[in-house]
Amino acid sequence: MASILRFRKLCYLEPVKCSPLGFESFETPKIDKKESFEIPKVDEKNESVVSAVEEVLEKPTKKKRQSKEWRCTDYCCWIIGYLCTTWWLLLFLYHSLPANLPGLKVPEPPGARLNREGLTALHPVVLVPGIVTGGLELWEGRPCAEGLFRRRLWGGSFTEIFKRPLCWLEHLSLHNETGLDPPGIRVRAVPGLVAADYFAPGYFVWAVLIENLARIGYEEKNIYMAAYDWRLSFQNTENRDHALSKLKSKIELLYVTNGYKKVVVVPHSMGVIYFLHFLKWVESPPPMGGGGGSGWCSKHIKAVMNIGPAFLGVPKTVSSMLSAEAKDIAFIRFYKSILLVHGVSSFILFCRTVAPGLLDSKYFRLQTLEHIMRVSRTWDSIISLMPKGGETIWGNLDWSPEEEHDCDSAKKRYLQPSLNENSSNNTDGKRGFQVKERMKYGRIISFGKAASDIPSSQLSTLGSKEFMRASTSTNSHASCGEVWTEYDEMSRESIQKVVENKAYTARTLIDLLRFVAPKMMQRAEAHFSHGIAEILDDPKYAHYKYWSNPLETKLPEAPDMEIYCLYGVGIPTERSYVYKLSPSDRCNSIPFQIDTSADGSDGSCLKGGVHFVDGDESVPVLSAGFMCAKGWRGRTRFNPSGIATYIREYRHKPPANLLEGRGVESGAHVDIMGNAALIEDILRVAAGATGAELGGDRIYSDIIKMSERIDIRL
Amino acid sequence: MSTLKRRKGSETKRVSNSEPPIDKEHEKREKERDEKQKKSKQEGDENKKRNLKKWSCVDSCCWFIGFICSIWWFLLFLYNAMPASFPQYVTEAITGPLPDPPGVKLHKEGLKAKHPVVFVPGIVTGGLELWEGHQCAEGLFRKRLWGGTFGEVYKRPLCWVEHMSLDNETGLDPSGVRIRPVSGLVAADYFAAGYFVWAVLIANLARIGYEEKNMYMAAYDWRISFQNTEVRDQTLSRIKSNIELMVATSGGRKVVVMPHSMGVLYFLHFMKWVEAPAPMGGGGGSDWCAKHIKAVMNIGGPFLGVPKAVTGLFSAEAKDIAVARAMAPGVLDMDVFGFQTFQHVMRMTRTWDSTMSMVPKGGDTIWGGLDWSPEEDYKCNKKIKSNDSQTVSQNGKGSADDAKCANYGRIISFGKDVAEVHSSKIEMVDFRGAVKGSNLANMTCRDVWTEYHDMGVGGINAIADYKVYTAGSILDLLHFVAPKTMKRGGAHFSYGIADNLDDQKYEHYKYWSNPLETKLPNAPNMEIFSLYGVGIPTERAYVYKLSPAAGCSIPFQIDTSADGGLGCTCLKDGVFSVDGDETVPVLSAGFMSAKGWRGKTRFNPSGIRTYIREYNHAPPANFLEGRGTQSGAHVDIMGNFALIEDIIRVAAGSTGDDLGGDRVYSDIFKWSEKIKLQL
Fold first, then answer.
1. Does some domain include residue A152?
2. What is the pTM of this model?
3. Which of A32, A58, A309, B285 registers the highest number of CB atoms within 10 A of its CB?
């Protein structure tokens, strides 16, 4: 604002001063001029209405009255003026500051260093953004969205949330039955690098990586951002927007125009499974697939560098589906007073920078969370992030692969530089004895803290059959305003039934969701599958709904390709939840909420109703690393051609001081995109290095051990 | 301290002199004390006054700023709180109900998105951003250097010029600098904030169902020569791949291409490139265009060049071809660079090869000789009348006697009298052999460098002595004054007319953007439209003079004192104007569609149908209309409702005949007939 103002003045008030020299002498001379304009005016008019200042100058007789008036109104003006001037001055100083303060040492970006090493752009790079991070813009809307044509509804400054919240929600929702556009509304993904370079002003996603790539010679012609509408199911992005065809054509073009160099693909978060879907799609025959033929991937792709991959899903999704709350929201609910510190939009990642407080304030007058839930339940893509592989992967009532995870020691361990060695067998065994009970991570949702601890024999669980039979009497009271979530259609009894079941594992969860959100699951299950394939050659696996599940597809026939799993570790990550019934207020229509009072003893992983494990704050290590560590390692049935896999973990280290921003050593799900080590790895691969040249695996967590515990046929 | 002492002294004197009663003394003291108190009171008052005065002096400034700020914020708040439809409401209250935008109207008629559309922006209008720069451009990574706010022009002008210039020898990036075109629709929807280029058209297309997946902006770096966009950025390959993709994903429906301004030539180049065999071309095969393109709708296309381009190269005076005119005059005329703005601009623009694609093509055959030009009977003042009554035929009656004052064929003449007299009376001294004299002022001109400094006085005078230049000799002139630029340009562009189109040499890419030296592709079902505005005086020929000799400046400038007077209104401020869209004369925009390609000619062997759609310029009725919905100006025509409607209809499947065939207001057919060109 201020800069605009200043600019205007510069140009219109004082055209002569528009030279760069004019900037320095800007503030004072202008003011003087104004003064000299004002005073004679007063003389001429000699009327009392004119500003009090001049009157003090001219007529000391009226001094007293005047000075009083001064205090009353003009004091404010004075303050504002003072602030503005100071602000401008600071702004000016800031602008005239050299970019690099000599005292402040900015670490050299990895791109610059590698450029000096002699790395240059070789392989074209394709970036695949994840959920939430891509911008969405309006192409056709209802009357309430007048004037927003081709403006960003998602991403950018999010001003429309505040200006017309209900309109905004309406436009971001998809059709409840088809999962596509509601009639009369077209919201589309922003294309190009701008789609996801910054999520909100100053909050980088891909920008740092792009900048570093540019330093070794990349530019628009060999970087491509595969933006897609992340609300849709993957196949629908092709049906509606031809996003997959576009990606295919772009990759082919990049391959040809860059001297037949294969591309390096860098997907992030949900983009990882989107690209998995693409890999299958592109080789499948035309009606359903892209018709590239079975050699397409091996011909065009050098490496897939998955950042923070959510291969096997994210437990957070479950809680957001069930009650529209992830950890962050639950806390906010509890501490209403710190509304502004942590905002959220429940889904998976980091909207928390943007929509602060607003969700829980009664901004929408009624039931913010319910609105959010209603909107997010129309987004099919969220289902793609549901935990996959059922109890085999995520553990059952009594067992889970991470059960030996010790939150306290984990933290300590990460502080020590050499860590791979110290967890030798005997300490491990000891820990097993010390911790009275192993955490029961397998129970992703349990009702009541007790239910999350006690042995399974004491749990009263209903069979899923019985569960489904619980009748849904749909005669709900229609008095709950216009907010509609499917919970309104559930009777109190069936909710009670849900709660009686006490604990849900990854397998029974699906049943639970089918029960509480039947429409959504019906839509979603046409597009996604969450099981483990028995026989991969079964013709049913040619259907696109299996393509994004690594446990139900084979990797393409491309022995020269490389797959990387790059992710952060060392941050507590949500793994399972303790729930409770909400106080029964009929219109507060989400009947469950996370029991934030459930806290474990010291050193326990239970905090605020959530069990934590190691991960990058969003994706647990297990989900990110398992496929690379075991599922695809070597020649397995999921990886018939023996594509090489590499795990590269990045230990989280919070930024040392405020000036560092989000840090160059962060391991958090999105902030890792600014991690210097990760960027270096990507640049090296893009410039031609192989995984072995990078140094192979780089592991800090227990991923190998965890994976070993998972009993899956390979 | 000193006063105290003095007082004491006097007191002691008094005491010693006479011994007054103590009570008197006491009284006196009291009095004194009172006085002191009074004094101090007064002093206090004065202090107060001074305080207040101080307040007024400095703080009133603050007050003033605060006042302005508050008001500004308040207005801004009101503006933001204003419902979006408010301006429209006000406009309607004043001018009566507005017509529906064409998109809405046609949507109601039931038109739906059918053919994918491709936009090809022209020169200047596309945004450019920085990918690699020198030290001085720190922090501008991926920020727009061209387009947007142009903030950097003010902040670091020399740095900006340095980055925008290209290498003087290769016409490519200077070392260490990479400026690349912005991609996507944002590249040219708005040129500067609020100054639309493609935005209105895009918005209207969106109304009938277009979106990102079936619209494509073929953004390219408009500074470099057409073939170099492929060499450096693979832009042509990208366009090809995108068109193929759009055709494939929209069920085999061919694309409708809409090039604007220089984009017209660029797309002409593309059509030849894509069918040419692989090393130099795109290897699409000879039926690529037939398979992929339904129609090419050229908006304001300078097929045969623009006279403005000559002055731009010659003396940097036409400022810039299209939009920069609206934007730049203020910027360029000011002494932003501290010294010699023009020279800096000239140096920069001369490194841009693309400007040479718009030098008039076809020589004297098209543009007229010393005593003849196709537009010679055009009358400036009558034009307005005839346009209003829409009786085009009236123009034909223009009597020949006073029309003779405008010899349009003489694109550059030195002195007004030279421009008017008959050719036999002009003494022409050939400049071609003239020796370029020794440099007169190279050192004093600091680092501004234009090629004029290599010419010396001799060369400059030789040029002025030649007096008159036609389209043919202008090329020699440019070769003489800007040898390096023209050498680069000559490798990429050609300006002649082909005698034998089957000659092997015409397979070289430098001929591809000249419609008079290429054949249209073999695509009989394709359609070519020429859409352009008419009714605005457009620069056609210039009267020059030598500048007052100052060592550092450009030695020639337009003689703005040359006015035609009543008899010859076409000459104004040293510029002869004809009918056109303010930038492109009708002849250049319409000739190919009117004659060169009409029917089966040697330039159009497969008989692609051509249509001319002219849009008569009507200035915006009032201020609220902005740039008008009936404008015919070169860039503003992109907001012309009639043009948008035509485009949408074609995109939705209409053919040229469905639109109603030709729609002509100007004399283009008559003028075309006068041009003797073997077809």
1. yes
2. 0.81
3. A309
